[in-house]
Amino acid sequence: MCLAIPALVTSIDGFEARVEVGGVSRGISLRLTPEAQVGDYVYVHAGFSISVVDEEEALESLRILRELAEEYPAEELFYTTGDLPPQGAEEGPTSD
Considering the domain boundaries, does residue 12 fall inside one? Predict the structure, then answer.
Protein backbone atom coordinates (compact mmCIF):
# COMPACT_ATOMS: atom_id res chain seq x y z
CA MET A 1 0.00 0.00 0.00
CA CYS A 2 1.20 3.49 -0.80
CA LEU A 3 0.42 6.63 1.11
CA ALA A 4 0.08 10.20 -0.12
CA ILE A 5 0.70 13.03 2.33
CA PRO A 6 -1.13 16.37 2.19
CA ALA A 7 1.23 19.34 1.89
CA LEU A 8 0.83 23.10 1.48
CA VAL A 9 2.23 24.62 -1.73
CA THR A 10 4.46 27.54 -0.71
CA SER A 11 6.09 28.43 -4.05
CA ILE A 12 5.95 27.42 -7.70
CA ASP A 13 8.53 27.68 -10.49
CA GLY A 14 7.18 26.12 -13.69
CA PHE A 15 6.29 22.52 -12.87
CA GLU A 16 8.42 22.49 -9.71
CA ALA A 17 7.07 23.53 -6.33
CA ARG A 18 8.09 23.81 -2.71
CA VAL A 19 5.64 22.32 -0.25
CA GLU A 20 5.53 22.31 3.53
CA VAL A 21 4.22 19.69 5.89
CA GLY A 22 4.88 19.61 9.61
CA GLY A 23 7.42 22.41 9.37
CA VAL A 24 9.46 20.57 6.74
CA SER A 25 9.89 22.00 3.24
CA ARG A 26 10.68 19.92 0.17
CA GLY A 27 10.63 20.14 -3.58
CA ILE A 28 8.04 18.27 -5.64
CA SER A 29 6.82 18.06 -9.22
CA LEU A 30 3.48 19.55 -10.30
CA ARG A 31 3.49 17.76 -13.69
CA LEU A 32 0.40 15.74 -12.66
CA THR A 33 -1.43 18.74 -11.17
CA PRO A 34 -0.49 21.81 -13.21
CA GLU A 35 -3.59 23.59 -11.86
CA ALA A 36 -2.12 23.74 -8.33
CA GLN A 37 -1.50 27.26 -6.99
CA VAL A 38 0.47 28.72 -4.10
CA GLY A 39 -1.69 28.28 -1.00
CA ASP A 40 -3.32 25.06 -2.23
CA TYR A 41 -2.99 21.76 -0.44
CA VAL A 42 -1.90 18.83 -2.59
CA TYR A 43 -1.50 15.12 -1.94
CA VAL A 44 2.18 14.22 -2.47
CA HIS A 45 3.39 10.75 -3.35
CA ALA A 46 6.89 9.80 -4.53
CA GLY A 47 7.84 13.43 -5.14
CA PHE A 48 4.78 14.25 -7.24
CA SER A 49 1.63 16.15 -6.45
CA ILE A 50 -1.11 13.68 -7.41
CA SER A 51 -4.19 15.79 -6.62
CA VAL A 52 -5.27 19.16 -5.28
CA VAL A 53 -7.31 18.84 -2.08
CA ASP A 54 -9.32 21.31 -0.05
CA GLU A 55 -7.86 22.59 3.21
CA GLU A 56 -10.43 20.87 5.44
CA GLU A 57 -9.68 17.42 4.00
CA ALA A 58 -5.92 18.04 4.08
CA LEU A 59 -5.94 19.08 7.74
CA GLU A 60 -8.14 16.11 8.69
CA SER A 61 -5.76 13.73 6.90
CA LEU A 62 -2.78 15.27 8.71
CA ARG A 63 -4.61 14.94 12.04
CA ILE A 64 -5.25 11.24 11.41
CA LEU A 65 -1.65 10.61 10.34
CA ARG A 66 -0.36 12.41 13.45
CA GLU A 67 -2.73 10.36 15.63
CA LEU A 68 -1.50 7.10 14.06
CA ALA A 69 2.13 8.07 14.61
CA GLU A 70 1.45 8.87 18.27
CA GLU A 71 -0.67 5.81 19.04
CA TYR A 72 1.18 2.96 17.31
CA PRO A 73 4.79 1.85 17.64
CA ALA A 74 6.80 1.94 14.39
CA GLU A 75 7.05 -1.87 14.42
CA GLU A 76 3.27 -2.09 14.19
CA LEU A 77 2.87 0.62 11.53
CA PHE A 78 5.48 -1.03 9.29
CA TYR A 79 4.44 -4.62 10.09
CA THR A 80 3.30 -5.65 6.60
CA THR A 81 6.30 -4.29 4.68
CA GLY A 82 9.01 -4.95 7.22
CA ASP A 83 10.58 -1.63 6.20
CA LEU A 84 11.22 0.12 9.47
CA PRO A 85 12.23 3.78 9.34
CA PRO A 86 15.92 4.57 9.94
CA GLN A 87 17.02 4.94 13.56
CA GLY A 88 15.97 8.34 14.88
CA ALA A 89 13.28 8.82 12.19
CA GLU A 90 10.57 8.45 14.82
CA GLU A 91 11.72 11.76 16.28
CA GLY A 92 10.44 13.68 13.26
CA PRO A 93 11.25 14.40 9.64
CA THR A 94 14.15 16.45 8.37
CA SER A 95 14.23 18.74 5.36
CA ASP A 96 16.05 17.75 2.21
Answer: yes
